[in-house]
Amino acid sequence: MPQSTQLGDSKAAEIKAVSIGKTFGAFHALRNLSLDIARGEFLTLLGPSGSGKTTFLMILAGFTAPTTGRLVMDGEDITDVPAEDRSYGMVFQGYALFPHLTVEQNIAFPLKVRGRSSADIKRKVGEMVARVGLSGHEKKLPAKLSGGQQQRVALARALVFEPSVLLLDEPFSALDKNLREMMQQEVKRLHQETGTTFVFVTHDQSEALALSSRVAIFNHGELLQVGKPQDVYERPGNRFVAEFLGEINLLPLDALRLEGDRAAGQFEERTIVLNRTMPMIGSDAVAAIRPEHMTIGTGQHSADRNAITCRVEGATYFGASTKYHLRTRTGTSLAVSMPTAATLLIAPQTDVWVSWPVHQGFLLPVGS
Ligand SMILES: Nc1ncnc2c1ncn2[C@@H]1O[C@H](COP(=O)(O)OP(=O)(O)O)[C@@H](O)[C@H]1O
Ligand SMILES: [Mg+2]
After folding, report:
1. Could you tell me the CATH number of the domain that includes residue 357?
2. Which residue range forms the structural domain that includes residue 268?
3. What is the pTM of this model?
4. Which of 3, 5, 16, 2 minimizes the C-alpha distance to 165?
5. Which of 28, 30, 45, 54 for mutating ligand 1's site (highest number of atoms within 8 Å of CB)?
6. pLDDT in tens, 304-351
7. Is residue 223 domain-shared with residue 160, that is, in the same domain?
8. Which of 92, 177, 242, 321 has a CA that sits 20 to 30 A from residue 287's CA?
9. pLDDT at 5 over 80
10. CB neighbours of 176 closer than 8 A, spacing ≥ 6?
11. Could you tell me how many helices (H) and strands (E) the chain has, helices first?
12. Which residue out of 22, 27, 58, 200 has the highest number of ligand 1 atoms within 8 Å of its CB and is therefore the one to mutate?
């Protein structure tokens, strides 16, 4: 792990989920899910509401038994090991602080139930209070704390006994934007300092991309793709992943063909060239390009860029960036996002070029 002192001699765990399935009656909440969680990584489970993220986290925690499949931790089958013997740290929605205990009593609780000596408890709690920035608040009850401070207590209580795994289920979804960003940085730092394996659940794509060493994308109880934030964002394996991670422009291509190590296809009267990222020649595909990778111009464009003609329909100002809404000759709508400082004021109904570097476009199968 990078930087700083370790909290103790706790050993981060690695977990292998092998063909996990979970049904509730006839309903499949998880289907044949296999995933290797590496020792000390920050893995985020990302997906829309109802996609099975919490169900999978509850199975990892030992609160829910899978219908099929096995869980293996550090080489040992733990599928039937009860939650209290897994001893993971947890910060869940609705997994509240004890309201009648002070900050330090809340943090001390997991050490007390583990029968640690009072000297040990005093030292560990003191360290943890300082680590989450709550010095001076030790004697307060949770009701006297702000939402962010309460989440810090919850994090401290989950980490104080040096668990081998920390599970977090949408811990910041109730916080406002600024506080959420602060807590994200806090969690990232705690991950680096403890070296513990973190499994974090969110439905917020920017939170997932900002925090994680890897992101696992769920939909309808299936794991669709897992990879580093840059890889899943820049090279999504299918349309759901591409669209869930951010806005994307899709151009249907005709006459798809190979040209050396590149793919090419026709869009309206233009040839679009793409890096050949998938063996899908012969099938229908769309060219996919993120709005921030495209630029608008009225003059010449260089040969290493794709370009299509569009008409500007409008613009939305977002402060740091401005998003242009455009339409191609045959009616495909496009969005182009440019830094506001770099944009000229382009009036609606102007005909422009929209261009992008060849390497920023990729192919997605139609209908995926
Ligand atoms: N105990 C349960 N009984 C019946 N259905 C459940 C139960 N727990 C979860 N589900 C269903 O499983 C699906 C996945 O739920 P969940 O894992 O909570 O999704 P997420 O956390 O991604 O929002 C949902 O459709 C939910 O209604
Ligand atoms: Mg959930």
Report:
1. 2.40.50.140
2. 248-365
3. 0.90
4. 16
5. 54
6. 789 999 999 999 999 889 999 999 999 999 999 999 877 667 788 889
7. yes
8. 321
9. no
10. none
11. 9, 21
12. 27
